Amino acid sequence: MPKPLHVSLVAIPDASISTLHGLYDVLCSFSLLQGFDDAIPDAPPFDVEIVSDASGPVTLASGLPTQTHCRVRDLSRTDIVIVPSVLLPGGQWPMGRYPELTAWMHSAYERGAMLCSACSGVFLIAETGVLNGREITIHWSFASKFRALYPDIVLMPEQPLVVSGERGQLVSSGASMSWHDLVLYLIARHVGRTSAQAIAKFFALQWHRDGLAPYIVFEGRSDHGDEAILDAQRWLAKHFSVADPVEKLVNRSGLAERTFKRRFLSATGYTPLSYVQQWRIEDAKRRLERTDAAIEKIGWQAGYEDPAFFRRLFKRLTGVTPGHYRRQFQVPEHGAPSGPLWTDGGAEAGQAPSRDRAF
Q1: Residue of 206, 157, 147 whose CA lies nearest to 179
Q2: For 173-190, what is each residue's pLDDT tens digit?
Q3: Is the per-residue pLDDT at 314 higher than 60?
Q4: Where in the chain is the domain with CATH 3.40.50.880?
Q5: Is the CATH number of domain 5-215 3.40.50.300?
Q6: What is the CATH number of domain 227-335?
Q7: pLDDT 10s digits, 111-124
Q8: Can you tell me the distance from the alpha carbon of 91 to that of 98, in angstroms, rounded to the nearest whole number?
Q9: Beta strands of the chain (E only): which ranges?
Q10: CB of 8 within 8 A of CB of 49?
């Protein structure tokens, strides 16, 4: 009988209780699911403990306490370390706040342990330095803050799960509920694919097979300090659906076309045309979520007269078709109150319904 793998779930005051306890419940469920499916092993494959740098309960980000099993300094060994998602006011990570945990994780990694993160928990693992030069994923809303702190780490926020390192010892999952992908991956890797399938069916866990691109909300960078480009961005946020938007942007700027395009790319990371497309597709996403308008009409409202081109572009940027996106994100009838839930809200073409913009 193989010895169960020791899993250390790290509890810190910034942690989300739902992710921490969700991971704990799933990884500890094997002994409770005997007889549900013959793919469930007879002996629990994981020995799971909630650990911290101090003894006693830890009050998590929501204000609720969670009981820990032991301090990391008292652990003789561990096979898998998981840092759950963290909730950060303003997206600011307090660097250097957990030196003992950082040193312990680095030591565990050197001894062969896997380091895993759910969502924004990767901030803590990044402090160990073992992610430098590696690819990871993170909640898209934290990407810019993370990149500023750790420019040597390659971000892939559109991916629900990224496995890196020579031995696949570094595993990160993306936005929020993609901890499902993380826990199912660990079960599939260490217990078996059929066990992962059985656990997924019992808990209704989901693999995010379409990636996380459909979830990402486009927000143009505005901290670049180029006032001419910032003015163009502000104008474009309200007029992205007009004909020939790039030409109008150049004319408004008073700059030579090549100069404007070079400065726009340098400031935002996008060409003007790509930036326009991002805004138009973001507008279409909101309308697909919040209205019942025909897809052809939504494409036209976003600025595209050719429905086929709109559909191709939408899939290229989001990874799914407009129809798939609507089915995935529009509130279903059983989840909505009686009567119409969403309307166009008087939105004009070129302005997404109920969408706040700030630059």
Answers
A1: 206
A2: 998 899 999 999 999 999
A3: yes
A4: 5-215
A5: no
A6: 1.10.10.60
A7: 999 999 999 999 99
A8: 17
A9: 5-10, 46-52, 58-59, 65-66, 70-71, 80-83, 114-118, 135-136, 154-155, 161-164, 170-173
A10: yes
